[in-house]
Design brief:
By secondary structure, the chain is an alpha/beta fold. The chain has ten helices and 14 strands.
C-alpha cells in the first residue's frame, strides 16, 4: 500500500532543555536541537523506522519552508509540496528535567483558497484504493475549516483508508465523514461531547461508541501517561501507561498513528495493532526532541504491553 502524510502546517521545531523553567526570569537553554516538524512529518519519520517510505505533502513557504525541505532530504522520503508565499512557522519546545514539555508555537502560513484546492488536487491525484491517507495536525492560517472534511470524503470515495489526527473544527467537521481511524485525547473527547472534566471511564467509552456509530472505523483514545483505550466495531481494549524514562513527549501521538498505519499495511489484528501502537508511543518518549525510537526498542516494549478487554454492561 502507498501512504501519504499530509502536514498542512509544518514547522521548524527547535527543542531545548532546562532543569526548571523560571517564568519571568532568565532561562539558559541547553542541548538545543532543530528538526523538521509537524505531525504528518513525524508520522513519516516513524513509518520509516518500520521500513515504509511515505509521501510527505502539505504547504511549504518562504526560507523556513525551504529549510524544512532541506532537513528532510537526508531521509530520502519523497516530498511534494504546494509552494505558498507566506513562510512556515518555527516552534520552540522547552523540556524540563521531568520530561514535561512547554510548547511555544508560531502561527502557520497564510494560504489562499486556490492553494488549498491545489493541495486537495495533489492528494487526490496520488490516491486510489491501495492508498492510506493520513491527515495530521492543525491547518495553515486561513485554511478553510472544512478542508479535512472534504479530503476525508473525497479520499474515501476513491477507496482510500483515511486516518484523521486533528482537533478543533478541523476534527469536528471531518469526523462526521467516518474516517477509518481517529486519535483524540481525553481533553479533545470531553470538549467534543461537552463532558465535565475529568470524564469517567464509562462516559469515555460511551462517547467512543458514538463515533463508531457515526462510521469511524478505529479509535485510539489517548490518556497520556495513563495509557489508552482502543475501539473498533467489535472490541474495546485498555492498556495502562508504561513506566519509562521520559525525555520528550513530542511526537508520541504521531508515532501511534504511524504504528496503526503500519499495522494496516501488514494486516495485523486489532489487538496486535493496539499493542504495537502503545509500545511505539512509549518508546518515542524515551528519545529526545521529535526523533522516533528504534525498531529494536519498540519491539522490546511490545512484550511489556498489558492489554485488557473492556466488557461493557
Amino acid at each position: 500500500m502507498k501512504i501519504i502524510t499530509v502536514t498542512c502546517n509544518p514547522a521548524i521545531d527547535k527543542t531545548a532543555y532546562v532543569d526548571m523553567i523560571e517564568f519571568g526570569g532568565l532561562n539558559r537553554l541547553k542541548n538545543v536541537r532543530t528538526d523538521a516538524g509537524g505531525k504528518g512529518i513525524n508520522v513519516s519519520k516513524t513509518l520509516q523506522v518500520f521500513g515504509i517510505d511515505s509521501l510527505i505533502t502539505g504547504f511549504k513557504g518562504g526560507q523556513s519552508g525551504e529549510q524544512i525541505s532541506e532537513m528532510l532530504k537526508p531521509t530520502h522520503l519523497p516530498q511534494q509540496w504546494i509552494s505558498v508565499s507566506s513562510p512556515n512557522r518555527t516552534n520552540l519546545k522547552v523540556i524540563n528535567s521531568e520530561g514535561v514539555c512547554t510548547e511555544l508555537n508560531e502561527p502557520g502560513p497564510i494560504v489562499s483558497p486556490q492553494e488549498t484546492e491545489e493541495l486537495i488536487h495533489l492528494i487526490l491525484n496520488q490516491t486510489d484504493s491501495s492508498t492510506i491517507v493520513i491527515l495530521s495536525g492543525s491547518g495553515a492560517g486561513s485554511m478553510a475549516s472544512d478542508t479535512y472534511q472534504r479530503l476525508v470524503r473525497l479520499c474515501k470515495e476513491k477507496g482510500a483508508w483515511v486516518m484523521l489526527d486533528a482537533d478543533g473544527e478541523l476534527f469536528s467537521k471531518a469526523v462526521i465523514e467516518g474516517p477509518d481511524f481517529i486519535k483524540p485525547n481525553r481533553v479533545e473527547c470531553e470538549k467534543y461531547f461537552g463532558l465535565v472534566s475529568p470524564a469517567s471511564e464509562k462516559e469515555l467509552i460511551e462517547c467512543a461508541h458514538k463515533w463508531i456509530k457515526m462510521g469511524v472505523g478505529n479509535i485510539v483514545l489517548s490518556l497520556g501517561k495513563e495509557g489508552a483505550y482502543f475501539f473498533n466495531q467489535d472490541e474495546t481494549l485498555y492498556a495502562a501507561g508504561m513506566k519509562v524514562n521520559v525525555k520528550s513527549t513530542v511526537g508520541a501521538g504521531d508515532s501511534m498513528v504511524a504504528s496503526f498505519a503500519y499495522s494496516k499495511v501488514m494486516n495485523e489484528t486489532f489487538i496486535e495493532s493496539a499493542r504495537r501502537a502503545l509500545a511505539t508511543s512509549a518508546a518515542t518518549v524515551t528519545t529526545p526532541s521529535t526523533q522516533p525510537a528504534s525498531l529494536e526498542i519498540i519491539e522490546s516494549m511490545m512484550k511489556l504491553v498489558a492489554l485488557k478487554p473492556i466488557k461493557e454492561s
